[in-house]
């Protein structure tokens, strides 16, 4: 009998074994079903995750000394998935955060900066748009926040795939923060055990068909859109 996955990384591995190069995620870049789309297979995601883990490990020596927290602020949901699982594969704890507006002003970075301080993040991963917005507002971001800034493409370019880090059901899967719309963002540790139990409850409630397709338009950086 095959054991059920007990961590998010093992869940991804199981998806790659089951789905191979079939699309796992499909992103409608303009929001139109008949418009341009980006797809990412489970195999492709797993390969990208291994490269991102290699890039993080080679760029953040502190990962060798113990778990680190890394904030993820991506407008692209596919890059978000790459960065999220890449952090887990590197042995770090991902911290999903809402990315700054593309025409951000200084105050728009305050929620992001408060999360960085609260979780003592060693790095932030964005993509071209979110990282660019951050640097336009705060060109000295790394120096002023004591936090490295990486782009997903830069980490993928390292192209040094490494074995995925090992974790357990009791280990943190991510830190989930409140939106910070009324108070300072506050975080809670979500373990692999927590999130897999939540996912099982959702599946039991929805009873989706085999190979069913789910559609979501919710923000993927927080709460239900994330889960």
What is the beta-strand fraction?
15-25%
Q: What's the count of strands?
A: 8
Give, in order, the helices and strands.
HEEHEHEHEHHEHEEHH
Mean of residue pLDDT values: 91
Q: How far is the N terminus from the C terminus?
A: 28 Å
Major beta sheet summary: 4 strands, parallel
Specify the number of helices. 9
Strand order of the largest sheet: 4-3-5-6
Structural class, by secondary structure, is alpha/beta
Morphology: globular
State Rg. 17 Å
Which percent range fits the helix content? Answer: 40-55%
Low-confidence stretches: none
Q: Could you walk me through the main structural features you see in this protein, from its secondary elements to its overall organization?
A:
This protein is of the alpha/beta class and 227 residues long. It is 41% helix and 17% strand. It is built from nine helices and eight strands. It has helices spanning 8-19, 42-59, 77-89, 110-119, 128-137, 141-145, 152-157, 192-206, 223-226, and strands at residues 23-28, 37-41, 69-72, 93-96, 123-126, 148-151, 172-177, 187-191. Strands 4-3-5-6 form a four-stranded parallel sheet, with helices on both faces. Strand 1 and strand 2 (37-41) form a beta hairpin. The two termini are 28 Å apart. The model has no long low-confidence stretch (mean pLDDT 91).
